[in-house]
């Protein structure tokens, strides 16, 4: 492990500790206010708090700090400025996860019940669909409230607000494109969005570019630095998603926490699938198994073997390496004007996101 | 009709004309960008644009201008400052209507198909549920983008952004409270929110207080004026909603554009219903008819008669008059420091919202 990777790992630990302390303090009064409206509104706010506090990797929140460090001319990170935006990104994630899990009928999230599953239990079967959609909407409102608490010169915060709004537009377009590509129901003639377009909008915007640019805006980054970070985030975000695709088939479920081969059963149009579909011999095999919830273990194993044998996996892995190299190239351009912390964290982010095994 | 009412009517006409011109110009590039992602994402953006351009009363957009006039020390309205916020409020309304209509299975909106009905037609039956939720989410992102386009000292815009975020949190809590009060499925012990709590959160925040405070923030209103407008908007918003409740039962469907007695069939817990339920003799009748989709005309007519005979209607009408009087009292306090336009529009808003018959 390089030094930067260690630095990034410590950043993640520090960010998690910070959020474990700040999120309950932020959410507590909101839950109380919701309970004062009615017990059911309180139930919804509690479900949101539950999911948010259960915590993910907090990687997006960490990337807000990375963006801040990269956008600042100063070595010091002003955590009071970063924290509201970090909380906002966690709540944005809650919002998107609530709607996403409800759509995908995924009852489990972060090792516990998804928000719609909590609401089905507590509000009953007739209200939970609408309740889950409104729960997501409420989290979105909370996220905006958190963002605008930031104590900061207003013009910087405004740049951050623009970056934030853009993330929301992009990620939702990405989700729509992905949903429609996966289920391949074409409402109009014309090809669906390519896997990398979906990744750019859905993953890069929301996972890497968005948090980086939000942090950079809060630090008052120059337009040139903003452009560099946007390009850095784009390469890294696509690499992150392609890595995710590979880990979903070839990863160790114990390390990733996700059941292996689920993407294939669910019919996800991943980069691996797209590569395999280019092989005329494999296309027929794929057609029978992809999105087939009843596919047998042997059928799934045959698809996975074909991904290896045709070189589909190798091509995706090579693409990930290429994308990480692009990100490293942008980092090199930025290097002369980065603080040591900014450099170490950006470099560490490449290892952590693009070269991870979990 | 008083002079102020004429002024407010002209304001509404002017705002409608302005939005008819600006909304297509604002939405056009977004629809093009969505189509560039994929044809289906384009379909969703087109459905949003369709509903938004079909137009409602544009009352919330007009109230942004009223808030601006009331918050400004100047007689001139800077429309370039108000317009992005007006567009944002129209898109916020689109967002909330999309989710609301989908939840309520209301296929018709503004004299045409609701967004989920358009998507069911164009994307097919398996995708439209998720499509409708994401469509609302996209409109929410658009609304935020529109708001942050405002050319303005950043601190004023920041105050506006806070007002906007607060509206979203309040309106969603109001919707949750209303949904749960209507369907009376209690997940916890404790009474549901009162009708006026729901009205405060749902209608007052989103219809009156929110737009007024957003406009006031854009004009750089003093904290004192902001407080006055908040109180004005609260009285007026509750009056507006109670008037709506009365018109839903006693209004002329030709004037209101809404089928009469629908609220009763749908089981809405309106102020009329709450008043009637206080009469022991009427409670039994109500229990058999409220929310009963198969209620006969005679049964519905009996409930409506009881609302008259028990004085339930008179009590609600008296409450509306009382609320309008409260708003007028706040207006009187503000009067010495209002511009003539600000005064006329606020006064006209009381007539237009509280005393309307359609």
Q: Whole-Å distance between the termini of chain A?
A: 15 Å
Mean pLDDT of chain A: 89
What's the helix count of chain A?
A: 16
Task: Report the radius of gyration of chain A as a whole number of Å.
Answer: 21 Å
Please report the two chains with the greatest interface, counting residues with C-beta closer than 8 angstroms to the partner's C-beta.
A-B, 65 and 65 residues
What's the level 1 CATH class of chain A?
Answer: Mainly Alpha
Shape verdict of chain A:
globular
By DSSP, the count of extended strands of chain A is 2
Residue fraction in strands of chain A: under 5%
- Give the CATH topology of chain A: Farnesyl Diphosphate Synthase
The oligomeric state is homodimer
What name goes with the CATH superfamily of chain A? Farnesyl Diphosphate Synthase
What kind of sheet is the major sheet of chain A?
Answer: 2 strands, antiparallel
| Helix percent band of chain A | over 70%
Structural class of chain A: mainly alpha
CATH architecture of chain A: Orthogonal Bundle
Low-confidence stretches of chain A: 185-189
Strand order of the largest sheet of chain A: 1-2
**Total domain count of chain A:** 1
Order of helices and strands of chain A: HHHHEEHHHHHHHHHHHH
Written overview of the protein:
2 copies of one chain form a homodimer. Chain A has 358 residues and is mostly helical. Chain A has one domain (3-354): Orthogonal Bundle (Farnesyl Diphosphate Synthase). Chain A has 16 helices and 2 strands. Chain A has helices spanning 3-37, 39-54, 59-71, 79-104, 115-123, 128-147, 154-183, 195-218, 223-250, 253-256, 262-265, 271-277, 280-289, 297-309, 312-334, 340-354; strands at residues 108-109, 112-113. Chain A has a two-stranded antiparallel sheet. In chain A, a hairpin with a 2-residue loop joins strand 1 and strand 2. In chain A, helix 2 packs antiparallel against helix 5 (115-123), helix 9 runs antiparallel to helix 15 (312-334) and helix 15 packs antiparallel against helix 16 (340-354). The longest helix of chain A is centred in the N-terminal third of the chain and has 35 residues, at 3-37. Chain A is globular, with a radius of gyration of 21 Å. The two termini of chain A are 15 Å apart. The model of chain A is unreliable at 185-189 (pLDDT under 50). Chains A and B meet through helix 2, helix 4, helix 6 and helix 7 of A and helix 2, helix 4, helix 6 and helix 7 of B.
């Amino acid at each position: 492990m390089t030094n930067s990777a260690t630095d990034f790992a410590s950043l993640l630990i520090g960010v998690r500790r910070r959020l474990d302390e700040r999120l309950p303090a932020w959410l507590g009064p909101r839950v109380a206010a919701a309970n004062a409206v009615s017990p059911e509104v309180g139930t919804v706010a509690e479900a949101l708090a539950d999911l948010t506090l259960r915590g993910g990797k907090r990687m997006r929140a960490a990337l807000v700090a990375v963006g801040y460090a990269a956008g600042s001319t100063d070595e010091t990170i002003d955590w009071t400025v970063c924290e509201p935006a970090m909380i906002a990104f966690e709540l944005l994630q809650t919002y998107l996860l609530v709607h996403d899990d409800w759509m995908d009928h995924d009852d489990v999230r972060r090792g516990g019940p998804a928000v719609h599953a909590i609401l089905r239990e507590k509000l009953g079967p007739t209200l939970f669909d609408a309740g889950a959609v409104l729960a997501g909407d409420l989290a979105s409102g909370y996220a905006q409230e958190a963002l605008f608490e930031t104590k900061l010169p207003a013009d910087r915060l405004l740049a951050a607000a623009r970056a934030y709004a853009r993330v929301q537009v992009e990620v939702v377009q990405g989700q729509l494109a992905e949903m429609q590509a996966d289920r391949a129901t074409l409402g109009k003639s014309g090809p669906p969005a390519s896997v990398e377009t979906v990744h750019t909008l859905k993953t890069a915007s929301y996972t890497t570019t968005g948090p980086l640019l939000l942090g950079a805006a809060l630090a008052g980054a120059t337009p040139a630095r903003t452009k560099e970070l946007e390009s850095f985030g784009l390469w890294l975000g696509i690499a992150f998603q392609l890595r995710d695709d590979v880990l979903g088939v070839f990863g160790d479920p114990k390390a990733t926490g996700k059941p292996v081969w689920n993407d294939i059963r669910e019919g996800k149009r991943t980069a691996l699938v797209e590569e395999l579909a280019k092989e005329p011999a494999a296309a027929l095999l794929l057609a029978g198994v992809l999105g087939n919830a009843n596919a047998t273990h042997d059928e799934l194993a045959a698809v996975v073997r074909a991904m290896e044998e045709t070189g589909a996996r190798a091509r995706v892995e090579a693409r990930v390496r290429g994308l990480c190299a692009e990100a490293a190239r942008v980092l090199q351009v930025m290097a002369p004007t980065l603080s040591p912390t900014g450099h170490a964290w950006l470099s560490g982010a490449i290892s952590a996101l693009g070269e991870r095994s979990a």
